[in-house]
């Protein structure tokens, strides 16, 4: 039997205005810190957590509202020349989303908005993102404003066993 955290995680695209406690944010950061990385190269990835409403609004503006007005954004940044950066960022995003689920929070994985954010050097600089890095994934996190639809994912992908 699969752990229910995997079955309960859903993409959330509508968030309540409820603030997320610093304690819960720290728990999500702790989950990020446990992320495995290719070739044990931990220096090719970092995280910027955006709680500030003004900064979140700027990010929403330049990404065409791709973050769904979530109260917290987790920007996973990877070194531009990293062979494993995108894969490491995806694994980190999954850790963040699963921890959010465990904390009764919703989340969504955002790649298009992350790519657009990289076109705004001034905002990247304001966010403290080193020019040698790029935002690879944004994970929006917050209390879901609606109950996400449940679906049976037990046979979602083809599996071959030899």
UniProtKB/TrEMBL annotation:
Keyword Magnesium assigned: no
| N-terminal signal peptide | none
Please give the Gene3D superfamilies that the UniProt record associates with this protein. NADH Oxidase
Keyword tags: Flavoprotein, FMN, Oxidoreductase
Instruction: Provide the Nitroreductase domain boundaries.
Output: 63-143
Asked if Plastid is a keyword of the record, the answer is no
InterPro entries this protein is in?
Answer: Nitroreductase, Nitroreductase-like
| GO MF annotations, alphabetized | oxidoreductase activity
Q: Which cofactor does it need?
A: FMN
Q: Family, per the entry?
A: Belongs to the nitroreductase family.
Q: What is this protein called?
A: Nitroreductase
């Amino acid at each position: 039997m699969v752990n229910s955290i995997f079955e309960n995680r859903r993409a959330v695209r509508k968030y309540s205005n409820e603030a997320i406690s610093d304690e819960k944010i720290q728990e999500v950061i702790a989950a990020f810190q446990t992320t495995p990385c290719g070739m044990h190269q931990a220096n090719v990835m970092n995280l910027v957590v955006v709680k500030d409403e003004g900064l979140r609004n700027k990010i929403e503006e330049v990404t065409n509202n791709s973050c769904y007005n979530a109260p917290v954004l987790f920007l996973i940044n990877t070194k531009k020349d990293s062979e494993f950066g995108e894969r490491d960022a995806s694994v980190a995003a999954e850790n963040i989303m699963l921890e959010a689920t465990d904390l009764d929070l919703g989340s969504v994985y955002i790649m298009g908005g992350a790519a657009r954010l990289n076109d705004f050097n001034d905002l990247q600089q304001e966010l403290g993102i080193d020019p040698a890095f790029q935002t690879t994934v944004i994970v929006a996190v917050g209390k879901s404003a609606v109950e996400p639809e449940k679906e049976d994912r037990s046979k979602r992908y083809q599996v071959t066993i030899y």
